[in-house]
Amino acid sequence: MTMQSTSTPSPAAVGRRRVATVVIGAGQAGLATAYHLGRAGQECLVVHGDARVGDQWRHRYDSLRLNPPAVRDGLPGTPFPAPRYSSPTGREMGDYLERYVEQHGIDVRHSTEVTRVDRLGDGTYLVTSRDGPLHCDNIVVATGGERHPRVPDVSSLLDPGIRQLHSSDYRNPGQLLPGPALVVGCGQSGADIALELAGAGHQVWLSGKANGEVPVRPGTRGARLMFPVLWFVANHVLTTRTPFGRRAQPAIRAGGAPLVRVKRADLDAAGVHRVESRTTGAVEGRPLLDDGTVLEVANVIWCTGFRQEFSFIHPSVTGEDGWPRDKGGVVPDSPGLYFMGLLFQRGFYSMLIGGAGRDAKYIARHIATGARSTGPA
Question: Which of 126, 186, 198, 347 could disulfide-link 239, Cβ–Cβ 3.0 to 4.6 Å?
Answer without folding.
Answer: 347
